[in-house]
TrEMBL record:
The keyword DNA repair does not apply. Gene3D superfamilies: P-loop containing nucleotide triphosphate hydrolases. It comes from the Bacteria. CDD domains: ABC_Metallic_Cations. This is Zinc ABC transporter ATP-binding protein AztA. The keyword Glycosyltransferase does not apply. Belongs to the ABC transporter superfamily. Keywords: ATP-binding, Ion transport, Nucleotide-binding, Transport, Zinc, Zinc transport. The gene is aztA. Residues 6-231 form the ABC transporter domain.
Length: 268
């Protein structure tokens, strides 16, 4: 039986006074598997960081009832030059249970080996991170997420630069997590993948465009609306220009920058 698990309440998130996600409200149900979709720069990663608590809301809030969180950021945000091995990265999955300096037990090692095997990385424990391919690195990050035993899992573009076989393998894990009643939000660009594997979709373009069952959300109308919102958005406006101004631009057919010269954004 599903119930409310995460709640966005008029949530606005951003950086240095500029909002990147505006006035998001809605509920995520426990055990749901949701794709987060939108164009480049539409605020998907920002939303993930907001849910993970890395980014504090400018206004509104995000309340959650999770016990353990696993957050897998975009690969581009992970420093692989750090002199660490696969085993070091994956063992970080224990830290919520053991603390950062806690000893890893024999049982932990067996568990860790099991996770590496599940992601197809048996025998990779001692490999330095900078020697891994993109797909192997992603598998290692999934192994870490498995160890975390999280009830809320945030995946930011987990299939970026990953081959089809790895995608298939990782999708099996994601679906297994969902079957275990874990709640999953996954940022994706591949619409075919979203339609085939993700029952729920949240479509954003700095603001919510549509949210609900994937067939209802991934319509050509909604995708077109998302593109229009995104194109009309003004990167330079103050922190809360508001949905209405972007919508007005679309309605009046004015492109973003031209409209900026004719309008005064609301700077707070
Ligand atoms: N650390 C930051 N400081 C300032 N602005 C940022 C920062 N991170 C993201 N932004 C801006 O916030 C907006 C939303 O970015 P975000 O990374 O959330 O988009 P995205 O939908 O995840 O994009 P992509 O699909 O390209 O990964 C963009 O305009 C981006 O330039």
């Amino acid at each position: 039986m599903s119930d409310t698990y995460l709640e966005f309440n008029n949530l606005t998130l951003g950086y240095q006074g500029h909002a990147a996600v505006h006035h998001l409200s809605g509920l995520v149900e426990r055990g749901s598997l949701t794709a987060v979709v939108g164009a480049n720069g539409s605020g998907k990663s920002t939303l993930m960081k907001g849910v993970a608590g890395i980014l504090k809301p400018i206004s509104g809030d995000c309340t959650a009832s999770f016990k353990r969180l696993a957050y897998l950021p975009q690969q581009s945000e992970i420093d692989r030059t750090f002199p660490a091995r696969v085993i070091d990265l994956v063992s970080l999955g224990f830290w919520q249970e053991r603390g950062l300096l806690g000893r890893i037990t024999r049982e932990d090692r067996i568990k860790l080996a099991g996770c590496l095997e599940a992601v197809g990385l048996s025998g990779f424990d001692k490999r330095p991170l900078d020697s891994l391919s993109g797909g192997q690195m992603q598998r290692a990050l999934f192994a870490r997420s498995m160890l975390q035993n999280a009830d809320l899992i945030l995946l930011d573009e987990p299939f970026n630069a990953v081959d089809e076989r790895t995608i298939r393998d990782l999708l099996v894990l994601i679906k297994q997590w969902a079957a275990e009643n874990r709640t999953i939000l996954c940022v994706l660009h591949d619409h075919a993948l979203v339609r085939a594997h993700f029952p729920q979709t949240l479509l954003i373009a700095r603001q919510l465009v549509a949210w609900g069952s994937t067939p209802d959300v991934m319509t050509s109308d909604n995708l077109l609306r998302a593109r229009s919102f995104q194109e009309a958005w003004d990167e330079t406006a103050g922190w809360c220009e508001g949905q209405q101004v972007a919508k007005d631009r679309i309605d009046s057919g004015l492109p973003g920058q031209a409209a900026d010269r004719q309008r005064t954004a609301v700077h707070v």
